[in-house]
Write a structure and sequence with these properties.
Layout (H helix, E strand, L loop, with lengths): L19 H14 L7 E5 L14 E4 L5 H11 L4 E7 H7 L1 H10 L4 E6 L2 E2 L5 E2 L23 H7 L4 E6 L3 H13 L4 E6 L11 H5 L2 E3 L10 H8 L6 E8 L28 H7 L1
């Protein structure tokens, strides 16, 4: 399939120049390279600019509540292990309202890919601070500057035992496409935290600001099987900011432990002979 085969019926209404356009392009390119059929893909989202993603792409989709895409994605994967499940959400959605689900997913190692559009703002609600906003930043909800230190998504995922942890950059579509394909090939939970400039509400972390600082881990000799080295790299955030695959291992996914779905997906099992009358009587 070609990238254009995944174009949805509606056109994106993101701000002109938004980094979300690049993430959308990279995802469609990755789907094409992986030759994924539209009917195989499930795109799950929460609420926010990033979470409008399923509206602009021609695949199965489900828009959940704010901060709730991870449990819905886990449920979809458990119900139908043949689905290729992708979560598209923002930093507020994932690391704010959904923080507890994020940590649980890392720990359990559910088999799906999460692409987090990280622009350091609640952009859909016009630019309030998010969990990843840099300390000292002034916004309409922090007139004297943010006093809370920002969440470090990569370090948090590593400490929560995620089995694939990466960071991408919306300004490098080909590299981001590669990360999406590598994350998909991984069996278990895959996080890609994407540095995504917000041209309307974040005038500090711009496209050029990132371009002056980012470097690729795969070009620096980083060993992605070394968790402690990955943790060290995750705290680089100043003159140098690493992107790429920080860490991956081959531990079994959550779904592989479920004997009930090892051979046949739950949605394809014959349940006609299962009787729940007695169970229902206990609840009625």
């Amino acid at each position: 399939m070609k990238p254009e085969d995944y174009i949805g019926l509606m056109k994106p209404n993101w701000c002109p120049g938004c980094g979300n356009f690049s993430i959308l392009a990279a995802a469609k390119m990755a789907f094409s390279e992986l030759n994924l059929d539209n009917s195989e893909i499930a795109a799950i989202s929460g609420i926010g600019c990033a979470s409008k993603f399923p509206s602009w792409i021609k695949v199965n989709s489900f828009d959940t509540l704010h901060g709730r895409p991870f449990p819905v994605a886990a449920g979809a994967k458990i119900a139908n292990t043949n689905l290729k499940v992708f979560v598209f959400c923002g930093d507020g959605d994932c690391y704010g309202e959904g923080m507890n689900h994020f940590i649980s997913t890392c720990r359990r190692n559910h088999d799906f890919v999460a692409i987090v559009h990280n622009n350091e703002r609640y952009a859909l609600t016009t630019g309030q601070t998010s969990p990843t906003t840099d300390i000292g930043t002034k916004t309409k909800t922090s007139l004297y500057g943010v006093t809370d230190p920002p969440v470090n998504p990569v370090a948090l995922a590593l400490s929560a035992n995620a089995s694939f942890v990466a960071r991408g950059f919306a300004g490098d579509i080909n590299h981001l496409k590669w990360l999406v394909t590598e994350a998909f090939k991984h069996r278990g939970f895959s996080l890609i935290d994407v540095l995504q400039p917000c041209v309307t509400f974040n005038t500090v972390n711009t496209l050029e600001w990132y371009k002056q600082r980012i470097y690729k881990l795969e070009e620096s000799g980083h060993n992605s099987s070394d968790r402690m080295a990955a943790i060290g790299k995750s705290f680089e955030w100043s003159d140098k900011i690493p992107i790429g695959i920080f860490y991956r291992d081959n531990r079994a996914s959550y779904e592989s432990y479920l004997d009930q779905i090892k051979d046949v997906p739950l949605v394809k099992q014959d349940i006609s002979k299962i009787k729940i009358d007695k169970l229902m009587e206990e609840f009625m």
